[in-house]
């Protein structure tokens, strides 16, 4: 039995970890691993594939493949036993069985594979023994780490003592400087007296002494004022530290932007702007009709899931406006099933399309302007298998030509809605550089960290119900470009639910209060698989 290589691959054929146990060129092992995804069939029970030269023995582990590449003369029973042992080791070292978890523990997996297979032959070991061999606990290493940690702690203590000594010396120096002003002043005055006593005569002592005192005191006051001025105009130390920190932060943000990350800067609002925003007029009653769209389209055409879930919520700011009923009007879509809140009068809604509480003397709950959720009044749901109900369809056509893969993507939008902020996210294979986008209707952005190409269209209306994009990447399997995720929003809904009027009840205000209605359609999970 000879095991040529043990590898962990993704379902799309991307090699995450591979360990070779015999001498073989890199080109050969890459060719063997690249051929494996094309040989794996769907719906088959066996877990091995044979070619003219080698045998692939594999086992699916969630979204991954654990693969052994052996020669055809090896014992397949022993190969299966080796594969079973490796499948137990992989979850022991990987915290999550996905690409990120495998890549972070790649070296640990290679070391574990080396303990199981030596020169292509299986060792007689268990999972516990492999873990023990890989840990390689050493008493000398522990002792060395303890000594090193004690030195680090001792150095930290010395640093703290030095820092406290420096702080004390600064405090003493400041105290000395403050006392030095008085000593310098007194010294100048005494020196002036001595100079005057030596140079002046007895008759002119008063005049000369007066001049000496005045000049010396003026010079002292001038110097003291100059010292205070320089200290007042000097920049504080804290500003210098903040400038350096912001420069490092800007460099870090620029590097993230270069990697494709979307950076949203946190801008603090000014006090005046905050006051203007708080004083903005708000309607006392706001009703929000929102629908969430869950659609799963097939890449070859057709629809596998179409589900619309909608809610109507009520937000009341003032308590005096809470004793009301809501007159609605539905669009007459027979596929929509409405369901009222348990506290609502169901008969009143089914007969007259009026939403009101069972107890007419009970007011609706009120909330602040910042409470955007409001109180739920009505829910509805619609499911369909009709593809004409889909607001946006995506067609993806990958084709390999030479050493390049040409991918053409087109969208077709229904005339039912005007779609806003449309983002079509296409997964790509791992690339060193951004893809070559040759033609696009809209804008594009490449997220290198997640390896995703985002196609953005600001608005889709009657002027652009269809559009296309074409880009080129290195050779890749067509399944790499799926699933395609789509995000958008619209201001109209499938239910076409409208609030016609607000009816005040007894005890409320006589004229009907002002109200506003918001309508929104958003995508919750919209994919092409």
UniProtKB/TrEMBL annotation:
Q: Which GO terms describe its cellular component?
A: COPI vesicle coat; Golgi membrane
Q: How is this protein positioned relative to the membrane?
A: Peripheral membrane protein
Q: Does the keyword Transport apply?
A: yes
Single GO BP term = retrograde vesicle-mediated transport, Golgi to endoplasmic reticulum
Pfam families assigned to the protein according to its UniProt record, in alphabetical order:
Adap_comp_sub (PF00928)
Per UniProt, the ranges with Polar residues bias are 222-233
Give the start-end ranges of region Disordered.
222-245
Q: What keywords are assigned to this protein?
A: Cytoplasm, Cytoplasmic vesicle, ER-Golgi transport, Golgi apparatus, Membrane, Protein transport, Transport
Q: Does the keyword Iron-sulfur apply?
A: no
User: Which residues are listed as membrane-spanning?
Assistant: none
- Primary location group: cytoplasm
Give the family from UniProt: Belongs to the adaptor complexes medium subunit family. Delta-COP subfamily.
Function, as annotated: The coatomer is a cytosolic protein complex that binds to dilysine motifs and reversibly associates with Golgi non-clathrin-coated vesicles, which further mediate biosynthetic protein transport from the ER, via the Golgi up to the trans Golgi network. Coatomer complex is required for budding from Golgi membranes, and is essential for the retrograde Golgi-to-ER transport of dilysine-tagged proteins.
Q: Which PANTHER family match?
A: COATOMER SUBUNIT DELTA
Q: How does it assemble?
A: Oligomeric complex that consists of at least the alpha, beta, beta', gamma, delta, epsilon and zeta subunits.
Q: What is this protein called?
A: Coatomer subunit delta
């Amino acid at each position: 039995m000879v095991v040529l290589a043990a590898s962990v691959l993704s379902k799309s054929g991307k090699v995450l970890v591979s360990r070779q146990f015999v001498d073989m060129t890199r080109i050969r092992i890459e060719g063997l691993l690249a051929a494996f995804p094309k040989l794996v069939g769907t719906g088959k029970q066996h877990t091995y594939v044979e070619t003219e030269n080698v045998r692939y023995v594999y086992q699916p582990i969630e979204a991954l493949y654990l693969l052994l590449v052996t020669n055809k003369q090896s014992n397949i029973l022993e190969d299966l036993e080796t594969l079973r042992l490796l499948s137990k080791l992989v979850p022991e070292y990987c915290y999550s069985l996905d690409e990120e978890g495998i890549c972070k523990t790649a070296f640990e997996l290679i070391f574990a594979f080396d303990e199981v297979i030596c020169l292509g032959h299986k060792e007689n070991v268990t999972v516990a023994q492999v873990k023990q061999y890989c840990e390689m606990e050493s008493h000398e290493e522990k002792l060395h780490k303890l000594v090193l940690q004690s030195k680090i702690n001792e150095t930290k203590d010395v640093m703290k003592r030095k820092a406290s000594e420096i702080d004390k010396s600064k405090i003493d120096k400041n105290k000395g400087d403050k006392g030095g002003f008085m000593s310098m002043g007194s010294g100048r005055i005494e020196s002036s007296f001595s100079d005057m006593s030596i140079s002046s005569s007895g008759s002119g002592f008063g005049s000369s002494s007066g001049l000496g005192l005045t000049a010396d005191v003026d010079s002292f006051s001038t110097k003291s004022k100059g010292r205070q001025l320089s200290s007042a105009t000097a920049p504080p130390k804290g500003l210098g530290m903040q400038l350096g920190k912001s420069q490092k932060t800007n460099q870090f943000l620029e590097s993230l932007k270069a990697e494709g990350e979307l950076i949203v800067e946190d801008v603090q609002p000014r006090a005046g702007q905050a006051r203007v925003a708080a004083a903005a007029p708000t309607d006392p009653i706001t009703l929000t009709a929102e629908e969430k769209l869950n659609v799963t389209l097939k890449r070859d055409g057709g629809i596998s899931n179409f589900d619309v879930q909608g809610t109507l919520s009520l937000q009341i700011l003032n308590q005096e406006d809470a004793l009301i009923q809501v007159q609605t009007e539905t669009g007459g879509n027979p596929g929509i099933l409405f369901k009222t809140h348990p506290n609502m009068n169901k008969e009143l809604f089914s007969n007259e399309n009026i939403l009101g509480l069972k107890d007419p003397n009970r007011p609706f709950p009120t909330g602040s302007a910042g409470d955007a959720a409001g109180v739920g009044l009505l829910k509805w749901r619609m499911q369909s298998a009709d593809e004409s109900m889909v607001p946006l369809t995506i067609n993806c056509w990958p084709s390999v030509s030479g050493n390049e893969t040409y991918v053409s993507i087109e969208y077709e939008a229904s005339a039912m809605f005007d779609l806003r902020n449309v983002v079509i996210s296409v997964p790509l294979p791992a690339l060193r550089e951004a893809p070559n986008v040759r033609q696009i209707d809209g804008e594009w952005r490449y997220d290198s960290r997640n390896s995703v190409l985002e196609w953005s269209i600001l608005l889709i209306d009657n002027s652009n119900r269809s559009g296309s994009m074409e880009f080129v990447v290195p050779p890749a399997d067509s399944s790499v470009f799926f699933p395609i995720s789509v995000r958008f929003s619209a201001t109209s809904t499938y239910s076409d639910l409208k609030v016609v009027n607000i009816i005040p009840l007894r005890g409320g205000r006589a004229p009907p209060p002002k109200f506003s209605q918001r309508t929104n359609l958003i995508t919750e999970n919209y994919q092409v698989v």
